[in-house]
Write the structure tokens for this entry.
Amino acid sequence: MSDVTEQKPPLLAGVVGHPIGHSRSPLMHNYWLKRYGIHGFYIPLSLPAADFVAGIRSLPRLGFKGVNITIPHKVSMLGLADNVTDRAALIGAVNTITFKDDGSIRGDNTDGYGFIQNMRQNAPEWDARSGPALVLGAGGAARAVVSALLSEGVTELRLANRTRQRAQLLADQFGAKVQVVDWNRASDAVDGAMTIVNTTSLGMQGQPDLLISLDSAPKAATVTDLVYAPLITPFLESAAVLGLTIVDGLGMLLHQGVPGFELWFDHRPEVDDGLRMAVLDR
Ligand code: NAP
């Protein structure tokens, strides 16, 4: 008789992108795994475009429950998933997949959810319905933010992007509540805006600053920046100087990870200061 006890294999999940070294998701998920004493691993996987389809298809056979999908694969994953959630279809990209027992792949996009949860946690008084929103940028992240704000009941959404045509495409898709504003008139569109969001990469380390004046923002406005390196961007600093409520972008990254972790590891994790420190401290 063998005295070797058969142990349950660890639960596996990860993040697929190319390159992948910059991703903070492993820090976040492995923090949660340790904190909740779950026997599992979350692994960064670098897959170039040429290997993407075969790589994803091999993961369930290797024991993966699911993975996050990041740059440059979020749009291609939409076509590869067997079922996608409404919010992923609306955003036009997938960032979280789950391998189902019947062999199918379910695709979701949790960026908009992360955006809203971050606002709720860090600006509890904030309500999307309290007045117009101004969204700066019209890239992938903007699609998630626009879609989430509309779902939250925002009545008027002003959208400004350096390349106006890209903003117009979003407005055409999301309907009449979205009004395109010229990039060089964005400071005027701050007037009356109760929610102001930077979704451009401006203000990120190594990038130029976002030079939009917040002087005419209502005193009760909430300003948030998706850029989280640095944590307090010059844009957020300018809002804080005016006494506006500010919310940094790290919480969005942390909250967007919650639904995936819960699906793969069967435990709903918390976003708290300990997690923030673990993800910042690298
Ligand atoms: P993306 O699809 O490449 O879009 C980039 C956006 O930035 C576009 O609107 C682009 O305008 C604008 N932009 C870039 N350089 C500019 C410049 N010099 N002047 C004016 N506008 C400029 O990128 P993304 O995926 O949307 O990500 C945007 C930012 O959000 C990144 O910093 C990313 O790290 C951050 N992000 C954060 C989270 C989070 O969880 N906190 C989640 C997703 C993304 P054009 O259309 O004119 O090029």
